[in-house]
Amino acid sequence: MGCRGCLLSLLASVASPLGGPPATVVVVTCSAHYTDFFENWLAWLERSGVAGAVGLVAIAEDESAAAYLEAWAAAPPPGWHAYRRAVAPPAAGAAPLGGALGFETRGFATLMARRAAYLAAELAALAADGAWAKDPASRLVFSDLDVVWLGAGQQKRAKFPTSKAPISAIFHSLGDPRPHLRSSGCDAWAQTQHREKGLLNPGFLALRPSPGAAKLLDAWAAALAGGPQRNLPAFNAAARGAAPAAAACALPPETFCSAKRTFNRPKWAADAPRGAVTAHANWIDGHDAKRAALARSGAWLAAGATPLLVPAR
Fold it and tell me: What gap in Å lies between CA 84 and CA 257, rounded to an integer?
């Protein structure tokens, strides 16, 4: 049955207590080395008001993270959407990866190579829910844990009286539903590397329940099946190979920003994000450097959080 089949079976065994997922379901992956980033990511979701409007699926990368995420899923805080699951694929039965997890390391490549199969399985499981699959607003979103969800890109949260309003600020605008994630011609939307290397970055990726999105994920998973490797080149190769049957579109870089537009700029601050809706620390290598960059900009909200396991320097 393979890894994807194992994950599909596991996903089927943990159905939502609500009987179905919300329109927006967000997937994150977490290893023992980045549980503090998971807590910071959750803190931003809660601060922006998105927590009550999205379902959340957290996928464990090792046995320590699996136990941690199961405890998280069992105790939802007030105000959070009830659709929240911890998923333990076969990889989660292993001990945490040793050594450093920097960009050039085998450990980093090992984690990245798993991602496409996770998302392909999750999209297939969600699409099996007929109501979710037929809803034109349905989206599966993947977010790296070093992506800060800033909400509306401004601090005037008093203007958003309901839990659905902040998610509208991220994915909608008044009178023009989902301007960044509209379905016309696109099966997937990714943060863009346009000004850097002309590439799409699947560290922030949205998918609609379409045959094209499934084809793209299957092609991406096949490209990563050979063993540890970085997933960004494989995603872009898969997007080119799957076209025109699958269309991957770029999100606006001034709104869904990389570190080059945010954390790497000394004067950038999360309290004055200058139109940014998400900020990704993707060009900052290593756990400690990423955390320091988020702290400098006021984007680290989980002050007391420590990782279960600190990766080797």
Answer: 26
